[in-house]
Design a protein that fits this description.
The chain is mainly β. It is 8% helix and 48% strand. Strands 1-9-8-5-2-3-4 form a seven-stranded mixed beta sheet, with no helix packed on it.
Length: 325
């Protein structure tokens, strides 16, 4: 009887030992949960448009992917998981833990996959950091951004830093009355159009190299809503956008073919139509992460483009001026 009891006891001990060896995450390793710390590059914008994300507080949620190496059956840590802003803390569903001896890579896209899907776009990410956002339409008003953190060690757990970078360009047009009009004359901006500008396409972003490109792009035109009167002493108006500061999201693009056309008149001057290119000696392309402000000053016989500014989401430089006669 003692022999049988000893045999059974040894069998149970062996089984328990075998079970421990098969556990993929040893208990002593699964103690520190993976958390995130999000930020936005060049966040001192001073912009008023609600659609422009100035800092992480303006982000409701993003989608995260993450893998570790050496690879095993559990190396996909995040497979397109939604991360929510919970009062400044970032939370997700089932907890994930740092593992000793593993090296982690993380990739993120804002807005989240669900929000992108509502506007007809799709998003995917591969283990080597190739992010694809298909059929993205900049007219949806979303400030498309990406972020990554590479080569994070599971031996030194800390919040994953995600510094989001803007992948769109932002343009605004401000029209004002010039000083050459007679004081009692009322100037009317009858119409304005902007075309052709790229508004839709597929983003391909290599998170490792930091290179981004757009393919399958589609160009459209914009027109202003209704006539605008510019009386003496009155302020100007932003056109082409309903945002407070006229912000218009577009794909990064060369602007050699882009034209703006303005039709205006006054009580004392007949209707005039002026068309202009938007290139200057310093601005030939609308770059990602930059905001361009064009100020159009209407005069009786010409339009002056002055104070062209190219802001790196908060850093200002002057880009020259254009006079159209």
């Amino acid at each position: 009887m003692l022999k049988n009891t000893a045999f059974i006891l040894l069998t149970l001990i062996a089984a328990a030992s075998s079970s421990c060896r098969k556990t993929s995450i040893p208990q002593e390793e699964a103690t520190v949960g993976i958390s995130f710390n999000a930020s936005v590059e060049n966040n001192q914008t001073g912009l008023q448009a609600k659609s422009i994300v100035e800092d992480a507080d303006g982000m409701e949620r993003f989608t995260i992917w993450g893998w570790y190496s050496p690879q095993d059956a559990n190396s996909t840590v995040f497979g397109g998981v939604q991360v929510d802003n919970d009062g400044g803390l970032w939370s997700y569903g089932e907890p994930r833990y740092w593992l000793h001896g593993r090296t982690y890579d993380f990739f993120a896209v804002y807005p989240d996959a669900g929000t992108l899907a509502q506007s007809g776009a799709g998003v995917a990410c591969t283990e080597d950091g190739a992010v694809t956002v298909r059929d993205f339409d900049a007219r949806s008003g979303h400030d498309l951004m990406t972020a990554c953190s590479l080569d994070m060690s599971g031996d030194s757990p800390r919040p994953v830093p995600l510094d989001f970078s803007h992948r769109l360009t932002c343009v605004s047009f401000y029209v004002q009355r010039g000083s050459l009009w007679e004081a009692d004359d009322i100037v009317t901006l009858e119409a304005a159009s902007l075309s052709p500008v790229s508004v839709k396409g597929t983003l391909g972003y290599d998170a490792v190299s930091g290179q981004a490109s757009w393919s399958d792009t589609a160009a459209e035109g914009f027109t202003m809503d209704g006539p605008v009167e510019l009386a003496s002493g009155s302020g100007g108006e932003y056109i082409f956008s309903r945002e407070v500061d006229g912000s218009l999201f577009l794909l990064p693009q060369d602007i050699g073919a882009v034209r703006i056309s303005v039709t205006y008149s006054s009580r004392k001057y007949v209707e005039q139509v002026r068309t202009a290119s938007l290139t200057t000696t310093t601005i030939v392309r609308w770059e990602e992460g930059r905001r361009y402000t064009y100020t159009l000053t209407l005069q009786p016989d010409m339009i002056v483009f002055s104070g062209l500014q190219a802001d790196r989401w908060g850093e200002t430089s002057t880009g020259g001026g254009i006079t159209v006669q």
